[in-house]
């Protein structure tokens, strides 16, 4: 099969996968059943990025993680008014809109600003809280940076996809903007000198400053449209019934002034309590849970990836042009795209067709499919490294192709490829950290929870590094034992 036919086959395969996943929109004459669907399911699934105190953050209660903050209280009230249970999905801020559009969540309550760009894709409730835009700086720079003009030409950090990111880009055109999905990492960048300041909302900036003596919150004088700077609840496009229900809840919250009199004081109390009992050591159960999920993902990906890898390698070595081309297209496509994109595609893309697809299963599927492509090439190279005389000798003894592979080729090939195969298994432990972007509670995800709960950035990362090293080093030693047995077999 020539190159042109292979490219055509690859395009056809991609269209077959992507076309069914193209978004469909509700026409104006169709009935809005958004509210009915939630009541029918019996739960309201709310997406949030729980690293934004006092809006949404996590605290430790016993061995469990509790989501608290202004937005969490609003979510609880909305779910109660709708007569359904509340389910919180914690994920990266810049993944929330994708999750909403693919119906992985029913609403976003995460201090999201209703900008015109976002309104084009989703529906918003009324604004429920408005705060100024502040800058978090190092305490030693408090006399150096006071107003917006002082930051000109300086590297500034902001959460990716946030209003603050847009404001920095517009009002500090000469500055280098560094965008990250987690505020914890931005604060680390600030304290390590990677950025001069971090743009965030006033309550959040003050929360970080109150719990970290090395940073200070200032008002640099950002100019912003008050209609876009407030926080609102986001819903899928064309959900007027759900928006109306949310506005009814928000009207009651405003009438009783619950945010200022109840939600903010409660958030402050949680932050104060968390600060007093926020030693990283006390969060050992978080790391233990992260290890558990990391090992589950790794073992499952190794098992399924190895099986699929064997199949793909045999397809690529097949005399059938169709089988060979399918294997080549799959391997080249998977190896030519980032694992992060593949994880998000499986969860948000395929997950749009299978609404009940859990994040953990999506993570296992994505890492297994990715690993299979690399394992296939390792196995293929091992098989091709066996001299052709071995095959001829086996066939001369009356073995068919199946027995030749089973008893002659594969055992010898396995000995040759074991180091490369072992390296792929070790790599999987580290690459599994990518699934944290879709809310899987692996080690990296749990580390981020510890960061947001303790207001410490570097120490939790150091602990995670040590744990990853122990796991990979232990696996390497175990694989070496098997390698020695193979060599002496």
UniProtKB/TrEMBL annotation:
Keywords: Amino-acid transport, Cell membrane, Membrane, Signal, Transmembrane, Transmembrane helix, Transport. Residues 1-28 form the signal peptide. It is found in: Cell membrane. The keyword Cell membrane applies. It comes from the Bacteria. Its main location: membrane. Pfam families: BPD_transp_1, SBP_bac_3. Gene3D superfamilies: MetI-like, Periplasmic binding protein-like II. It is a multi-pass membrane protein. The chain crosses the membrane at residues 293-315, 458-479. Residues 291-479 form the ABC transmembrane type-1 domain. PANTHER family: GLUTAMINE TRANSPORT SYSTEM PERMEASE PROTEIN GLNP (PTHR30614:SF20), MEMBRANE COMPONENT OF AMINO ACID ABC TRANSPORTER (PTHR30614). Belongs to the binding-protein-dependent transport system permease family. HisMQ subfamily. This is ABC transporter substrate-binding protein/permease. The lineage of its organism: Bacteria, Bacillati, Bacillota, Bacilli, Lactobacillales.
């Amino acid at each position: 099969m020539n190159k042109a036919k292979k490219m055509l086959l690859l395009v056809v395969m991609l269209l077959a996968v992507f076309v069914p996943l193209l978004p469909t929109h509700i026409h104006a004459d169709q009935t809005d059943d958004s509210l009915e669907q939630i009541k029918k399911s019996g739960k309201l699934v709310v997406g949030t990025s729980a690293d934004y105190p006092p809006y949404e953050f996590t605290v430790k209660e016993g061995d469990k993680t509790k989501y608290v903050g202004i937005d969490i209280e609003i979510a609880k009230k909305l779910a109660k008014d709708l007569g359904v249970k509340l389910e919180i999905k914690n994920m990266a801020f810049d993944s929330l809109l994708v999750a909403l559009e693919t119906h992985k969540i029913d609403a976003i309550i995460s201090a999201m600003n209703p900008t015109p760009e976002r309104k084009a894709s989703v529906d918003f409730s009324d604004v429920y809280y408005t705060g100024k835009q502040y800058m978090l700086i190092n305490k030693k720079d408090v006399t150096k940076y006071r107003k917006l003009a002082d930051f000109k030409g300086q590297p500034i950090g902001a959460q990716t996809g946030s209003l603050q990111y847009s404001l920095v880009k517009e009002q500090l055109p000469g500055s280098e903007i560094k965008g990250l999905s987690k505020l914890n990492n931005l604060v680390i960048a600030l304290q390590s000198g990677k950025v001069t300041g971090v743009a965030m909302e006033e309550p959040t900036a003050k929360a970080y400053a109150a719990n970290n003596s090395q940073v200070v919150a200032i008002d640099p004088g950002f100019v912003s449209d008050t209609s876009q700077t407030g926080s609102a609840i986001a819903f899928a496009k064309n959900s007027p019934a759900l928006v109306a229900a949310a506005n009814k809840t928000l009207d009651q919250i405003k009438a009783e002034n619950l945010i200022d009199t109840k939600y903010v004081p409660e958030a402050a109390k949680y932050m104060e309590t968390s600060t007093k009992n926020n030693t990283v050591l006390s969060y050992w159960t978080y790391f233990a849970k992260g290890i558990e999920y990391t090992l589950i993902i790794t073992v499952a990906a190794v098992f399924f990836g190895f099986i699929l890898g064997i199949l793909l390698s045999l397809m690529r070595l097949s005399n059938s042009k169709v089988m060979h081309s399918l294997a080549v297209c799959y391997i080249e496509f998977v190896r030519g795209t980032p694992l992060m994109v593949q994880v998000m595609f499986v969860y948000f893309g395929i997950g749009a067709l299978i609404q009940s697809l859990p994040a953990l299963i999506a993570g296992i599927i994505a890492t297994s499919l990715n690993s299979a492509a690399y394992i296939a090439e390792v196995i293929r190279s091992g098989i091709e490294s066996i001299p052709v005389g071995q095959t001829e000798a086996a066939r001369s003894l009356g073995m068919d192709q199946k027995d030749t592979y089973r008893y002659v080729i594969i055992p010898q090939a396995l000995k040759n490829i074991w180091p490369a195969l072992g390296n792929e298994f070790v790599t999987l432990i580290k690459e599994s950290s990518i699934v944290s972007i879709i809310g899987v509670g692996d080690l990296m995800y749990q580390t981020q929870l510890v960061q947001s709960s303790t207001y410490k950035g570097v120490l939790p990362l150091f602990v995670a590094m040590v744990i990853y090293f122990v796991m990979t080093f232990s696996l390497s030693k175990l694989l070496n034992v098997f390698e020695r047995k193979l060599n002496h077999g």
